[in-house]
Amino acid sequence: MTNYAPTHTTSRALVIGINKYEHESPLAYARNDAEGVRNVLFQRFGFKFEHIITLLDEEATYSAIRRAFLRFANSGADYDDRLFIFFAGHGHTITGRRGEIGYLVPWDGRTDDLSTLIRWDDLTRDP
Fold it and tell me: Which SS3 state, helix, strand or coil, does residue 46 take?
């Protein structure tokens, strides 16, 4: 019997941690959690630092997060690439006609204005 040993052409990560928000209440540990995850990816899992995008606090704007996701989608990623996404920050959920819809709250987002939030399934569905 052959053991399966996964191989990854390239390992890429997007790590986001937001403690301080422009319009929402602050969090205590999100930024530290993101920095810790980034360091573990680099030190223990072999991710190259140049393949880890880290957005912390005011860097994690609506535009910057969407741009980072598009960069992954358009990077010419190989089928065997490993992609890791970590978000520590506020989330927001609403109940739609087909069930619950989850949103990420970027640094400049407002939970009372859905147009400023990032709908999770917009980022994760196949193009």
Answer: coil
Tell whether the model's pLDDT for residue 9 goes beyond 70: yes
In the predicted model, what is the mean pLDDT of residues 26-48?
A: 96
Give me the residue spans of the domains in the chain.
Answer: 11-124
Beta bridge partner(s), residue 92:
103
The contacts found for 94-103 with CB under 8 angstroms, 24 or more apart, are none
Distance CA 38, CA 125 (A): 24
What φ, ψ does residue 122 adopt, rounded to 5°? -65, -30
pTM: 0.88
Enter the CATH code of domain 11-124.
3.40.50.1460
